[in-house]
Specification:
Blueprint: H1 9-16, H2 20-47, H3 52-69, E1 77-78, H4 84-115, H5 127-150, H6 160-169, H7 176-195, H8 201-215, H9 223-226, H10 244-276, H11 282-298, E2 305-306, H12 308-316, H13 323-338, H14 348-363, H15 365-371, H16 376-391, H17 394-415, E3 418-421, H18 428-433, E4 438-444, H19 452-462, E5 468-472, H20 481-496, E6 500-504, H21 508-517, H22 530-539
Parallel strand pairs: 4-5, 5-6
Antiparallel strand pairs: 1-2, 3-4
Helix pairs in contact: 2-3, 2-8, 2-12, 2-13, 2-14, 3-11, 3-13, 4-10, 4-11, 5-6, 5-14, 5-15, 5-16, 5-17, 7-8, 7-14, 10-11, 10-12, 16-17, 19-20
Length: about 550
């Protein structure tokens, strides 16, 4: 990997030249995205079990660094819905200090992953797994907001099923004022998206909800009621409490945060590439996201990653360079410093309506429905990941989903790979020239651990030991260590029965690998052809 692969795109774009027109475009785009990001950061901070301040701090600190150090020209970073479930679980179990430590560890994991080239592997996570846990997260986010949307003051547990049980028991205490504010907010957002899609629908809806509740003096819970002592500005950076036991407990959560951050950052960068025509640097994007998460943790913020919707807004607003994302963070900081007192007047039902819309956007309902029409294996993978996310745990869902996807892929590979006898009708002239006791067999596909046992079984199926076996290898692109060991066992057992084995048509990569792995194959470097081997066996059966 070249050294340029780890050069932040900010440096690249500044080397190209930066003029007044680019500056003006980036400032306008940064302000536009800040207006969109403001209500989302507040709502996601609350949904995560923290407060609006943590959401805004994350958007400011991490948003600035993701743009400044990332590998995409127009990426916008900050808190996203993907983290809500895991963050809420960590805060419930270990408090905000535990979340800070998990985010800090996730940042270092992302940096190591970036320099190790893991960014190129993220694209191999199959769509049913990504869609399954994304849709599951969306359902959990929506469920977590039902209480505020209905004005229920009863606290709800973290568990999905228990939460709905609490809602059912408290259904007689629904606040009509909160429900009215929530429904009005939803209706306004949908109307603005349909009639005036260029306007910041979330911000307008939040302002309308706050003004309506204050003007009519509605008895609804506001942000100020729930968070009465929310300070303004950025907190001083500080290290979280460290202990070996806590690090051990939080390590699985840190890996989950890093996985989610990496997946969403790279997906967002790919979307941006498609909109701009540029190409992001996956390794540097992970490194920049890792540094941003470390900084967010030091300032007491939440996990952060690239945000697809905000990045798309940034592109549509005319962003030219990463400075647009840095301006977006600067505008959010100004709001945090100068207008934080106004946040207290926002009704919780209004923020719940915003998060319900966020959850619907995350759910990718159309893609979910299309995957339900795919083959049974992928359909089962989608549903299992979805249900595990909702009912068990996001970490378990990701681990099980990726593992089952790998096993499903290997099963499919093994169905199309293996050792088969060559049909005598395929080349009757050559077959007629062969002496008795010569068998020709062909490998189809890679020789890996999933098909290794088939080789030994093929030798048993031959029955009486032939004089020679010709293994045609021209269709073998890859051999792994297990496959090499099985091939060596095949040759050894054949020779023990008095059978000579010829490897023909082998490609350079598997040929070199065999010579390194098994000394007995060192002589296999001879470039034997299928036709030449048949001629030699025909002329000299003793060979």
């Amino acid at each position: 990997m070249s050294a340029g692969a780890f050069t932040p795109k900010l440096i690249t774009t500044l080397r190209e030249g930066y003029n007044r027109a680019r500056l003006r475009a980036d400032i306008v785009a940064g302000l536009t995205v800040a207006i969109v990001a403001l209500p989302l950061a507040m709502a996601l901070g609350i949904a995560s079990g923290a407060s609006p301040r943590e959401g805004l701090v994350t958007a400011v600190v991490a948003g600035f660094l993701i743009s400044a150090l990332g590998g995409s020209r127009v990426q916008i970073g900050g808190p996203t819905g993907a983290f809500v479930v895991i963050v809420a679980g960590i805060i419930a179990a270990h408090g905000l200090s535990g979340l800070v430590l998990a985010t800090l560890m996730a940042g270092f994991i992302l940096i190591v992953a970036g320099y190790a080239g893991v960014g190129r592997l993220m694209r191999f996570v199959p769509m049913p797994v990504v869609t399954g846990f994304t849709a599951g997260i969306a359902v959990i986010i929506a469920t977590s907001q039902i209480g505020d949307f209905l004005g229920l003051r009863a606290g709800a547990p973290v568990d999905f099923l228990e939460k709905w049980a609490v809602y059912a028991r408290a259904s007689g205490a629904i606040s009509l004022a909160a429900l009215g504010i929530g429904l009005g907010t939803l209706a306004l957002i949908l109307a603005l998206r349909r009639l005036a899609p260029r306007l910041p629908a979330y911000l307008i809806a939040i302002l309308a909800g706050a003004v309506t509740a204050a003007w009519l003096q509605l008895p609804v819970e506001t942000v100020g009621d729930r968070f009465p002592a929310m300070p303004a500005g950025l907190p001083a950076p500080h290290l979280p409490e460290l202990s070996l036991a806590l690090i051990r407990d939080l390590l699985p959560s840190a890996f989950t945060i890093a996985f989610l951050a990496g997946i969403e950052a790279l997906l967002s960068a790919v979307v941006a590439d498609g909109m701009t025509g540029y190409r992001h640097r996956s390794g540097q994007e992970l490194v920049g996201t890792g540094v941003a998460n470390i900084a967010s943790a030091l300032f007491g913020g939440l996990p952060a990653t690239g945000a697809i919707a905000r990045t798309a807004t940034n592109v549509r607003a005319g962003a030219r360079t990463p400075l647009a994302g840095m301006f977006h963070a600067a505008f959010l900081l100004l709001f945090l410093l100068l207008a934080s007192d106004l946040i207290a007047f926002v009704p919780m039902a209004t923020l719940a309506a915003v998060l319900l819309m966020v959850a619907w956007g995350m759910s990718e309902a159309g893609r979910f429905r299309s995957l339900l029409r795919s083959d049974p294996g992928e359909r089962a993978l989608l549903i299992l990941t979805f249900l595990l996310t909702i009912l068990v745990d996001l970490t378990v869902a990701i681990g099980v989903g990726v593992t089952l996807a790998a096993l499903l892929f290997m099963r499919r590979m093994s169905e199309h790979a293996g050792l088969v006898a060559v049909d005598p009708d395929e080349d009757p002239e050559q077959r007629d020239q062969l002496p008795p006791g010569v068998e020709v067999m062909r490998f189809t596909g890679p020789i890996f651990f999933g098909v290794a046992s088939d080789m030994i079984e093929a030798l048993r199926r031959i029955g009486q030991s032939p004089t020679a076996i010709v293994l045609r290898m021209e269709l073998v692109p890859y051999i792994d260590a297990t496959g090499a060991g099985a091939l060596e066992t095949f040759v050894r057992q054949a020779k023990a029965g008095g059978t000579e084995v010829w490897l023909c048509g082998m490609q350079r990569r598997p040929l070199d690998f065999l010579a390194r792995m098994e000394p007995s194959f060192a002589g296999a470097r001879r470039a034997l052809t299928y036709q030449g081997t048949l001629k030699r066996l025909s002329a000299d059966p003793a060979a």
